[in-house]
Prior knowledge:
By secondary structure, the chain is an alpha/beta fold. It is built from 13 helices and 14 strands. It has helices at residues 13-18, 31-49, 75-87, 107-119, 130-146, 161-176, 195-202, 223-235, 258-268, 324-330, 357-390, 415-431, 458-475, and strands at residues 2-3, 10-11, 154-158, 184-189, 210-213, 239-246, 271-276, 300-303, 316-320, 396-398, 405-410, 440-441, 444-445, 447-450. It has a 7-stranded mixed beta sheet with strand order 3-9-8-7-6-4-5, with helices on both faces. A 3-stranded antiparallel beta sheet has the order 10-11-14. Helix 4 (107-119) packs antiparallel against helix 11, helix 11 (357-390) crosses helix 13 (458-475) and helix 12 (415-431) runs antiparallel to helix 13 (458-475). Residues 1-11 have low confidence and may be disordered. Bound molecules: pyridoxal-5'-phosphate (PLP). Pyridoxal-5'-phosphate is lined by residues 101, 160-162, 165, 193, 195, 246, 248, 250, 275, 277-278, 304, 316.
Amino acid sequence: MAHDRSAGLLHSPADAEQGLDPFAGPFAPDPGLAELLQEASQLLVDWLGDSHRCSPRPNLSLEPPAVPDLQPLGRGQLLTDLRALMGGAYRANHYGALAHLDPPALSVSIAADLVASGLNNNLLAQELSPSLSRLERRLCRWFASRLGLGPAATGVPASGGSLSNLMALVCAREQAGLQGDQRAVVFTGAAAHVSLDKALRVMGLPREALWRLPLDANGRLQPHAVEAALQRAHAQGLRPMALVALAGTTVQGMVDPLGPLAELCRRQGLWLHVDGAIGAVCGLVEGQRWRVAGVEAADSVTINPQKLLGVSKPSSLLLLRDGDLLQRSFATGLPYMEPVEGVQGGELGLQGTRPAEVLKLWLSLRHLGLQGIEQLLSQAFARAERLRQLLTAPQLQVLPGDLHLVSLGLRNSDATAAGVWRERCHQALLQQHFWLSKPDLHGQPLLKAVLGNPFTSEAHLEQLAAIINSTAQESSHE
Length: 478
Ligand SMILES: *Cc1c(COP(=O)(O)O)cnc(C)c1O
């Protein structure tokens, strides 16, 4: 055991040789950190560049030890263990990684995350993140204004869309004055995300408080369904608190008619939250805004740059028309922090300590530019459109969708036969390194492709469609 040069901590002889101190000191650039970062970066770059050789979803991996040994380990061992772990990781940048809303990370986002981690600032309070707190406020206002939410709009980053949805409903309840009222109910469509069920549980509301309303034949929630629900709720003496409309459902990628729903909410004095975890990013650019038309009339919006845009996880924002409502809903005072003009980051939502997620979001968006964002989105939609064209087997039923998701099942077949086809097709696809997911919709087994992966080429789409078409045709010969 030797003594650490700077921090007085014990470390191993191996580390003494390799010069890896636990912390980088304030007196000079730390060569040990520099080497560590270089080697770890190289490992990552190599891993990313090697994905085409592997399956997007490795089924075999070496498991390095999970817990610390008594003795400290040196850099060499740490990197060996890291390499082993990475061998079993999901490969988001594989051209066949099409199962979920988890695209590869933008390169700038990767670098920004590294820097944010090194800065280790805390968005809880301005004194702990002077420049980053201001950047966060400015960027949230930009998001809100791009979506057209009005002059008083702003927002707050959250560790994922589930948390954004929860905070939105807490704000809606605050606004409606229904805190502690067990008669509160929330309306949404049948295809709404499970995070809404969780949100209501956390808010102390009964499960039945979430009304999942029937959708039209395409999978969209129509105003008349909401009107009927409003009447029923009032007749039962219940208190409607919010409508959650979807800008992108999880299986089909459907966008509810946001404009007409907003109009209904305005007439009824009902809060409109748009769960745009998948699709709200379309509102950021002129060429795609039509896909989420009406989002500008929402009271609150969940937007997840971690999905379509490829900002590394987590990256979600809750945006609100009335920005002050965040503070009204969550502010507690922070007596152990210096007072600031405006509001502290930790008083804008549920989280206290928050990492500088804003840093990767900011640099990524600056790198892409509005043109780059537009291109990323339009290419994803074009791939989805192209796959739809290529899925020609008459046995297939390709569900309608508004975004970059393509879900499909077997036409005129019972769930058992469709389940057999799905399993066979899924396996055949995996053998060619295409990974689709297997959602069920109203008891029907489906396959789902998410076309957010920029490395899926025309040739890949043709290959993918050929496998799906032929398995569907085979299934009808049985
Ligand atoms: C992904 C998603 C969420 C939840 O977001 P997380 O970041 O996974 O918490 C909410 N709603 C919809 C429609 C989603 O697709």
